[in-house]
Fold:
Amino acid sequence: MDPRRVTDGSRRQLLKAGIGLAALSFSPSAARADQNWQTFKRRFVVDDRRVIDSGNNNVSHSESQGWGLLFAQSFDDKETFARIWDWTSRSLQRGDGLFSWRWSPNTADPVPDKNNAADGDILIAWALMRAAAGWNEPRWLQPSRRIQSAVLERLAVDFQGRLILLPGLQGFARGNRYVVNLSYYVWPAIHDFAEGAGDRGKWRRLEADGLWLCDNAAFGDYKLPPDWLLFGQQAFRVADDWKPYFGFDAIRIPLYLAWHNQAARLGRFVTAWRTPRFGGRPPAWINLDDGSVASYPSSGGYAAVAAVTQFVADGARGNAPIATIGDDDDYYSASLKLLSNLAAQEGPRAKRN
Structure:
């Protein structure tokens, strides 16, 4: 994307409409970075509309659609962006503005579960916000702001003096506790929303309280956050209904922290992965109760997350790491690589609180 496309007058107009300067961040321009997007699109985007999870029966998620929108925006692919958004809004968006979390091509009703996933909602809203600013397209502002408002109204819960983000509207209350997924906090998106025209105070509080949750969720020998956290009575536990892993979900926590330029918060992840046991590469999962690890290796996407985490933690010295999507990468691994590349380019340039 060429920043010269957005004139000073257009920037001022869009900023008045509610887009923070942080949304005007631009993607890597190297040829292999663009080739990564072409490879991703060819393998995982059906008809330039539906982003498929190749490791999960080719279903689509609000998450996959949000990432697809984010990638299309970042690599200046306006046509694909518009098609992905059209399919997503028609196939997954609910009446309240949020999105059903999964669409299956192999069932009579492709959306049998109408519950949402907060990270998908946030990613879609953020991609729309960035597209409106980067392409001078105010038509994408209104749907972004509607989603943002729905997230705050329906998923941000005031609980024991903290504003927490529910992973979904239904199923995460446990009496006087709530289940939280810290990987659903897309930190750079939340920060950009806090700089926009919505309820800035509430977004800032959600950001600050979410970082507090993240800082205090520290389990096992490596003091890492779990995939799923149970919070209540100002106490933290690994959620009972999930395995006590730092794994498939939690690997995105340092990724989004690096994208948010939170270098001081990345040390525990780097320290864990630098131990001789791991040699710099995260295992597929770490059991936070007994320290055991997966018997199978993690994907290349995990290695890309480790690279950008170390890059930002070390002060972003030298060239930003760029991972390349290979034939052995499934949808999730390829997504982590593209996300890590964007985080490496944008995170160190961002001015964060």
